[in-house]
Amino acid sequence: MLKEITAKEFTKIESLERAIYRECSFIQCEFSGKVFSNFEFLDCEFIDCNLSNVELAHTSLKTVSFSGSKLIGVQFHSVNPFLFKVKFNSCNLNLSSFYALNLNKTKFRECDIQEVDFTETILTESLFESCNLSNAIFDRTNLSKADFRTADDFNIDPTRNNIKKARFTRENISGLVSSFGIVIS
């Protein structure tokens, strides 16, 4: 049985004991490369933290928000998918993977999401507000009703992804047709 830690603020720390963290805040913490396998984070927030290459195998992330944080190379696909719910604001998610996860209604705001793997991911009704999606991988991804109106540098093949009722602008629609070799000027 894991110890439960509730409503505690952690500032500028570099390690955590394996536990259930409920309604906790982690501020300016340096967790790069740490192993957080079999942890539970419930209604927690990470603010200005470095979680690059953190290992999350079988970890629960239930209503967790990340703001101003680095999450480079994180393999989110290894988390416990039960009640998985996250949101990202001003984060660097480059080189991470959300392979085959359910990210329904997830909010990505002002994030770098370059070379991120969204293969077979459910992103229905998700928001990509002012995000850079350069070289992000969308393959057999459900993007129905997703909002890309302010996103940049994405390349989504409509023949390999579900984009029904997804939202785009005239300015960024070239990201939908580039796989056809069409040039829009």
Helix count from the secondary structure assignment: 1
Q: What sort of overall outline do the alpha carbons produce when their principal axes are compared?
A: elongated
Overall helicity: under 10%
Tell me the β content: 15-25%
Number of strands: 10
Mean pLDDT equals 95
Q: How would you classify the helix and strand content by structural class?
A: mainly beta
The parts where pLDDT drops under 50 for at least 5 residues are none
The major beta sheet can be summarized as: 10 strands, parallel
The rounded Rg comes to 17 Å
Distance between the termini: 61 Å
> What series of H and E elements makes up the topology?
EEEEEEEEEEH
